[in-house]
Design goal:
- The protein has nine helices and seven strands, in the order βββαβαααβαββαααα.
- It folds into three domains: 17-140, no CATH class; 154-215; 228-273, no CATH class.
- By secondary structure, the chain is of the alpha+beta class.
- A five-stranded antiparallel sheet has the order 4-3-2-1-5.
- It is flat.
Length: 274
C-alpha cells in the first residue's frame, strides 16, 4: 500500500491503528484557571506511520479574543477546520516543548515523567516541566479542575465562573442554565468583569500601601536574597535541563518573574567582566 506523503491528509482507515493517545491543550489564564482550547491525539499504525490530530474547541477559543493567548503554534485557527492533521511529522506545538530523542539527559527526563521510552504527547501530559514560550499546557483527556463557585468575593466568583466555562462543563450559573453556544459570549463577559474587579482591587491595595508608607507603618516587601554562586548554579542546571523550572523556583524561593530578572542581571554582570 502506498504511503500518504501529504502531511495534512489523514492516514487511510484501511491501515490498522495499533495505538492512540489523547490529551487536551489548555491555556493557563491563571495558575488555577485553565481554558481547554483543543483536543490533541497521537495515532500509531501497524506500518509504523503516525499522525497527530488537533481538534480546536471553538466555543472556548472564540471567547479568548480579549486576551493575548497566542493561539496554537503551527495551527492556523483562522481556517476554522474541525480537525488539523499532521501526518508523519512532529508538529511545532510538540517539538518545541518536548525533549528530542538525542537529548543528553533524556533518561533523567523520562524518569521524572514516569516513562520508559519517549512518547512526546504522554511526556507532555505527565511532566511538570514548564515551557516558558507560551501559557499552553497539556492535560489528560477529560481533565477537570472546577471545584465549585467561590463566594469569597465578586472577583473570585467571576474567576470561578471562568473555570467552569474553561472546562467546557454544562453551564449553570447562579441557577440559570445557558447553552453551549453561549459559552464564548459568557467567557468574554466574565473576563471583562474579572479584569475590572482585579484592577480595582490592585488600585485599592496601592492606595492603602501609599497611605501606610506615609504613616510609616509599611516599608514594602523585603526582597529575598539569593547568593550569586547558588543563582549561577541553578541557572546552569536549568539551562542544561538537569532541573525543571519548578525545581529552580523551589530552590531559590523566588517568583518566576524575579528569577528570570536575576538571571538576566547575572548574565549582564558576567558579560561585563569578559
Amino acid at each position: 500500500m502506498k504511503r500518504n506523503t501529504d502531511i495534512t491528509t489523514p492516514i487511510s482507515s484501511d491501515v490498522k491503528r495499533i495505538y492512540s493517545l489523547s490529551g487536551e491543550i489548555c491555556f493557563a489564564y491563571t495558575k488555577t484557571t485553565l481554558f481547554k482550547v483543543a483536543k490533541i491525539t497521537y495515532d500509531l499504525f501497524e506500518d509504523e506511520s503516525y499522525q497527530y490530530i488537533f481538534e480546536p474547541y471553538y466555543d472556548v477559543v472564540d471567547g479568548l479574543v480579549l486576551v493575548d493567548w497566542g493561539g496554537i503554534p503551527g495551527i492556523n485557527l483562522d481556517l476554522r477546520r474541525e480537525r488539523y492533521y499532521r501526518v508523519g511529522v512532529i508538529p511545532t506545538f510538540i517539538s518545541e516543548r518536548t525533549p528530542s530523542p538525542s537529548r543528553v539527559n533524556l533518561k533523567e527526563e523520562l524518569e521524572r515523567a514516569n516513562l520508559d521510552y519517549l512518547n512526546r504527547l504522554q511526556w507532555l501530559i505527565n511532566t511538570d516541566t514548564v515551557y516558558t514560550g507560551d501559557k499552553l499546557i497539556v492535560q489528560q483527556d477529560g481533565f477537570n479542575n472546577f471545584t465549585g463557585f467561590s463566594t469569597k468575593s465578586a472577583q473570585w466568583h467571576a474567576l470561578s465562573v471562568l473555570q467552569l466555562l474553561g472546562m467546557r462543563l454544562p453551564i449553570d450559573i447562579d441557577g440559570i442554565h445557558f447553552s453551549d453556544q453561549e459559552r464564548s459570549t459568557l467567557i468574554k463577559a466574565y473576563l471583562i468583569e474579572y479584569e475590572f474587579l482585579a484592577t480595582k482591587r490592585r488600585q485599592r491595595q496601592n492606595i492603602g500601601q501609599l497611605e501606610a508608607k506615609e504613616r510609616g507603618v509599611y516599608t514594602g516587601r523585603k526582597p529575598i536574597e539569593v547568593s550569586l554562586p547558588l543563582l549561577d548554579e541553578v541557572r546552569q542546571k536549568l539551562k542544561a535541563g538537569r532541573i525543571t523550572l519548578k525545581d529552580a523556583l523551589a530552590i531559590t524561593k523566588l517568583s518566576k518573574a524575579t528569577l528570570y530578572r536575576k538571571f538576566k542581571q547575572l548574565e549582564e554582570s558576567q558579560n561585563r567582566k569578559v
